[in-house]
Amino acid sequence: MPGPLTGIRVLSFCRALAGPYATMLLADLGAEVIKVEDPLIGDFTRAAGPFINEISSYFLGINRGKKSITLNLKEERAKEMVFKMVNRFDILVENFRPGVMERLGLGYEAIRAVNPEIIYASISGFGQTGPYAQRAAYDMIAQGMGGVISITGTGNPGDIPVRVGYSIGDIGASLFSVIAIEAALLERERSGKGQYVDVAMLDSQVALCENACNRYFASGEIPKPTGSRHPLLTPHEIFPTKDGHIVLIAFVDRDWQNFCKAAGKEEWITDERFKDHWARLDHYELFVSEMNELMRSRTTAEWQEILDAHNVINGPVNNIEQVVTDPHIQHREMIQEVDHPREGKLKIVGTPMKFSRTACRIERAAPDRGEHTEEIFSELLGLSDDELQKLREDTVI
What we know:
Structural class: alpha/beta
Number of helices: 17
Number of domains: 2
Strand content: 15-25%
Order of helices and strands: EHEEEHEHEHHEHHEHHEEHHHHEHHEEHH
Strand order of the largest sheet: 5-2-1-6-7-8
Largest sheet: 6 strands, parallel
CATH topology of the largest domain: Rossmann fold
Radius of gyration: 25 Å
């Protein structure tokens, strides 16, 4: 069966990461996503490396399953074309700085006047209101201002704070946007009305820092980075092995006891310094020194076999090559191949969303710039080949 959003049509005025990632997820779910690009340069991330021949791997990674049309939004005829076809869309998504779509004449009120059932979603750095609304934002800005960077890293004195290793500032907003858009679609089934969705990267980072914020509310102490350690439990962190690293978690006393038996350290079960989480935290420097020495005595694979046999929670710290070749990842179809019109078969990251009936299907790679311009405008606006050619000559499309 088709995906759960089959029959839903999305008009995307998105570029960079937050908006394209959100609309990619909608496409994964079965929606028809039509991406609007500038006729000359397209989405500027098409120029971002590394490249597969002349195609941006960055662009490929977040624009799969979409269709691309070109429109010069500085031309009045291009805007008229948007208004003529917007009644055929359920969702509009944009991630310009607040006010840009209004200056283009394509803001929510203008679009709603034509299609009152539209779900219009704006993704921005700081939201559509507030003292920071007009500030520029990129991933690391959101991570920094939202508190994420302040709780990330080793915490060693003098160390420079570090960002999370992937763009959670953008992607966090993408995920909240998709949740909000789908909720608005569901509500529309009851009310028959569309609505405006405003999602900010900064707000999303604050929401994802809920545990750190709640600890501050409870204690008044400002959370700081603790490396791979959990702030309240240990072992609940990463340890070195003979050939790499392993994550080891003892969540309850039974987990710790199972670990001690697996590691041949039964005496630690009753050792006053190590017998429970509070004791281990109170003697942490000694504890971690003993643990590091112990864990370095075997390889990661050897530890996994021993710990699995004793029902101890663990997992290797994989590099990306190990991730994409992992048999479980392969089984879960998290690495897939799609057809690109010029490059043939290309590997992509799959979707984690699994459905029992309406399965997500990633059927095509990211489109070439304007690849579907003729198809979409002839279908939605009934334009002839001659009319399309004239629009091209006039740099409207």
